[in-house]
Amino acid sequence: NAGVTQTPKFRVLKTGQSMTLLCAQDMNHEYMYWYRQDPGMGLRLIHYSVGEGTTAKGEVPDGYNVSRLKKQNFLLGLESAAPSQTSVYFCASIGSRNQPQHFGDGTRLSIL
Amino acid sequence: QQPVQSPQAVILREGEDAVINCSSSKALYSVHWYRQKHGEAPVFLMILLKGGEQKGHEKISASFNEKKQQSSLYLTASQLSYSGTYFCGTEGPDAGGTSYGKLTFGQGTILTVHP
Hints:
The structure holds 2 protein chains of 2 kinds.
Chain A: E1 4-7, E2 10-13, E3 19-25, E4 31-37, E5 43-49, E6 56-57, E7 64-67, E8 73-78, E9 87-94, E10 102-103, E11 107-111
Parallel strand pairs in A: 2-11
Antiparallel strand pairs in A: 1-3, 3-8, 4-5, 4-9, 5-6, 7-8, 9-10, 9-11
Chain B: E1 4-6, E2 9-13, E3 18-23, E4 30-36, E5 43-49, E6 54-57, E7 60-65, E8 70-75, E9 84-91, E10 104-105, E11 109-114
Parallel strand pairs in B: 2-11
Antiparallel strand pairs in B: 1-3, 3-8, 4-5, 4-9, 6-7, 7-8, 9-10, 9-11
């Protein structure tokens, strides 16, 4: 039982490049979330999904897009990477409200 | 709006106690507590729901005062393994009155336990 798996674990990009981060969960969870974490700060919600085919904006959505074509996968895209998007990205999921969020191990992204 | 945690950092010796506070300016449905070690993902500790309940997890317990929109995490007889950054995550109604399990996290409290 893998739980929540994020790929890749590390990535270095140049400014203006694009990439997609994948989050996959095998717990049949409805709700999925993408956060970013910067040094000395807590996690900030980028986008979230309440079920297959749905997405919504979180606290810091600018510069990111997401898709949830399959229930188990939640993709985070950077269309034109900027140095300000250098961060650690975490994906999390829950089956229903009032449940612990299950986090992936994170993706460490550096943009030069 | 981000909940405010205090203190920002705590240094303890093994066996000492600590209290970490989390305060929100918004009405809350629940408060979640997580611990994160350097380079790792946050690890769930406990959830407190409306009703002013107090929960415990070994030597770590927490309380939630929904009227004051505050929660406190109590760590007793601290161990070296307690070192890490503690985050509270608050869930409350958004503009539409829903929440969908979304959490707003505090900035974290760094706890260091020395032998």
